Amino acid sequence: MAESPTSSDELDDSVQFIYEPVTSELEQVVDNLGTLARQAQLTGDPSLLEHAIVSGGKKVRPAITLLAGGFHPGHEDVLITMATAVELLHIATLVHDDTIDSAKTRRGQATVGNIWGDDVAVLLGDYVFAASATYVCETGNLRVVRRFSETIMELARGELAERFSTHDWAQGVDEYNLRTYNKTASLFCTAAQSGGILSGGSEEETEALNQYGYNLGMAFQIMDDILDFMGTEEELGKPVGNDLMQGTLTLPVLLFAAQHPNEDVVKRLAAGGRDESDLKVMVDMVRNSPVMGETSAVLEGYRSRANEAIAKLPDARPRQSLEALTEYVGHRRS
């Protein structure tokens, strides 16, 4: 894995540098979320929507939209609207993911399903999906509206693929890559591409931003895969190796299984075994094997291609932030 910054202060400085050009616009995105929560008039607990959408989180995806649109200033209002739509779409997927996973907490607070029940969580996720669509329609750009709709389909396709591939040891890296694009990278693509479109960028610039989003999104998910083995429970908010214990086969696991098909534990799991002790052994074997370094090399490849994609864009402050974001993705701990 790439060497981490020497201190948390260095990482914090990096994050501040990334967001600096769009801080005021991101504050308006947060204001939009608060206004939506206050004015929703949902029947039941008035704190329901606010609990779901007015929370922490790094706001990476809306920041990408705003930064991608920063190469051609003067379109801040429509970019803020789009960034709000992007964040709402992300939040909706989290609400549904938490419900499907029966997660009890998210970012240190109880999930909607934990407090109000899974039925309410599903309906609220649907509401937030719809709310995101109303914002993207306000951009008045049919190309962006269509791309946003396609992204919702891709997100659902990725989630379905993950569910149906649980404990499926016959899958390979190609299936993983497609699932990762749909479930994670597709929204990064849309966040970046829409910023280019709505700010009047050229087709070449817009495609460069789209490629940046794709490679950054893939790197983002692979870093999650690495952290699932190399992070700590305190950092992750869940046990180390939790994905594998739940039956989700991430890139390090798939690489290990392909290289060690004759390991007894691999054969038992591949034959349909789901013994918890075998899964725990597998977590330790993967964590302490060379495949972690190989996974990091794949991560580095995506990060390099992300920066290569935007190298053709003007060397302006937004590009510097996007490059810093690529660097941060390889060092983050949560």
What does this structure look like?
The structure is a single chain. The protein is mostly helical and about 325 residues long. It has a single domain (about 10-330), classed as Farnesyl Diphosphate Synthase (Orthogonal Bundle), CATH 1.10.600. Helices cover about 70% and strands about 0% of the residues. It contains 17 helices and 2 strands. It has a two-stranded antiparallel ribbon. Strand 1 and strand 2 form a beta hairpin. The chain is globular and about 60 Å long. The two termini are about 15 Å apart.
CATH architecture: Orthogonal Bundle
CATH first level: Mainly Alpha
Q: Might you state the CATH topology name?
A: Farnesyl Diphosphate Synthase
Termini separation comes to: 15 Å
| CATH H-level superfamily title | Farnesyl Diphosphate Synthase
Number of helical segments?
Answer: 17
Q: Give the overall silhouette.
A: globular
In total, the number of domains comes to 1
Spatial ordering of strands, largest sheet: 1-2
Question: Which properties best describe this structure?
Answer:
mainly alpha; single chain; 17 helices; two-stranded antiparallel ribbon; 334 residues
What's the arrangement of secondary structure elements?
Elements (H helix, E strand, L loop, with lengths): L7 H12 L3 H17 L8 H6 L6 H9 L7 H26 L3 E2 L2 E2 L1 H5 L1 H20 L4 H23 L8 H26 L4 H28 L2 H4 L5 H4 L5 H9 L4 H7 L5 H12 L3 H20 L6 H13 L5
Antiparallel strand pairs: 1-2
Helix pairs in contact: 1-17, 2-5, 4-5, 4-9, 5-7, 5-9, 8-9, 9-10, 10-16, 13-16, 14-15, 16-17
